[in-house]
Amino acid sequence: MSDDEADPELLALLRQSLGIATSNVNAPAETKVIEGAEYIYNNSIDIALDTRGCKVAANTIWTLMQEKEYSTKTWSTHELHPKAKTE
What we know:
The chain has helices at 8-18, 33-43, 51-67. By secondary structure, the chain is mainly α. The longest helix is centred in the C-terminal third of the chain and has 17 residues, at 51-67. The protein starts with 7 loop residues before the first helix and ends in a 20-residue tail after the last helix.
């Protein structure tokens, strides 16, 4: 390993300390989005969410993301993503 290469053990330790360690490299990143959404759903007074509608929307989005091979690695190539930092 050269000095320019990242040490895999240190990367694993960093990921673990940040709570993003996964046993499967291909597993989706843990973003805590579900926990945040559940908190809002359970603690909001002025917001009402339809659980079935949310699940249908999530499944539709997930299916389309899989079909189009869209991921966090390709999101910046989307046509609506700004190409320059000033956009």
